[in-house]
Design a protein that fits this description.
single chain; Rossmann fold; 10 helices; globular
Length: about 325
């Protein structure tokens, strides 16, 4: 006992600062527990008010696929418009592998653009989807289709007119919206679509950009090549049949990431089949309508936006 007393005393002295710190900590908050594990997000949606009267419901879960993360969308709605509104579903670009529903072209604040569109009397849903690192094609198309079905099923909750639906996509997102528009399945057919600088013939795109790794990841291509049947099935240009909804295709003539002939040939194919296809080619701007100066980029973006908004007014009103 004589030898252990100093050790006990030292332990007590060392513990005193920790006890003092614990006494300073605030008490635990009140909380409730369930009789089972609760994996759901307790804060799944939040609302944002925009100056022009539009409201955004953010992070709405539209699909929960076993083995994958929940898939979300942002829904922009006008507050000043009574009754069901036409719906526009936006799909972002990023090579099917990155970016997010709040990014678009060269706009620094793309949600402002979507809120402005909603303020004109539309419900606008900007969706996320499974990236190629998570799942190969056709997962991305299936996610778009799931979003359209979800929004139509919940039309009364969200104030949507499910009979008037348009799609808008950029780059790889344009490929997805175009493919769904010209090759829709039950519950996913739409009344019009807009594609900005998209690839619509993926076999040709792979010849034009043989160094592109995004599309190889999309199809899980091997060293021997990509599955030709799957590449053809994913190409909107191969599904045109004269019964397709009206289209607006917009492309920069200096685009080297996705060459403008992709939009030109797709528009020609649509028209040859008897479909309505409007084509806007903007000189001297690259992918994303990026020009030589900020003023040129802004000018091209404004032209594309004006044409897009006018198109939706014409086909969805």
């Amino acid at each position: 006992m004589h030898h252990s007393t100093p050790r006990v005393l030292a332990f007590v002295l060392l513990a005193l600062p920790a006890i003092a710190r614990a006494a300073e900590l605030p008490p635990l908050p009140d909380f409730a527990v369930a009789g089972r594990l609760v994996p759901a997000d307790p804060m799944p949606e939040r609302q944002t008010q925009w100056p022009d009267g539009a409201v955004t419901l953010s992070d709405v879960v539209y699909a929960t696929i076993p083995g994958f993360r929940p898939l979300h969308l942002d829904l922009y709605r006008p507050t000043a418009v009574a009754g069901p509104r036409p719906l526009i579903v936006f799909v972002h670009g990023g090579g099917w592998a990155n970016a997010n529903p709040r990014a678009g072209a060269a706009f620094t604040r793309f949600p402002d653009v979507l809120a402005d569109l909603a303020g004109r009397g539309y419900a606008v849903a900007s969706i996320e989807f499974r990236f190629t690192g998570e799942a190969p094609f056709p997962a991305q198309l299936e996610d778009l289709q799931a979003a359209i079905r979800f929004l139509r099923t919940n039309a009364s909750r969200f104030g949507i007119n499910g009979a008037k639906v348009g799609l808008w996509g950029m780059s790889s997102g344009a490929q997805l919206v175009a493919l769904n528009a010209v090759n829709c399945v039950d519950g996913t057919c739409v009344q019009g679509f807009v594609g900005w600088f998209g690839p619509y013939d993926l076999a040709a795109y792979m010849r034009e950009r043989p160094e592109d790794l995004y599309v190889r990841q999309l199809f899980r291509c091997s060293a021997e090549g990509c599955p030709a049947a799957l590449v053809d099935a994913a190409s909107p240009i191969n599904h045109v049949d004269g019964k397709d909804p009206p289209a607006l295709l917009v492309h920069g003539l200096a685009d080297t990431d996705v060459v403008p002939s992709q939009s030109e040939r797709f528009a020609t194919t649509l028209r040859a089949a008897g479909d309505s296809a409007q084509l806007l080619l903007i000189p001297e701007v690259k992918h994303g309508f990026v020009g030589a100066t900020p003023a040129a980029t802004r000018d091209a973006s404004q032209r594309a936006l004006s044409a897009t908004f006018e198109f939706f007014d014409r086909v969805l009103r």
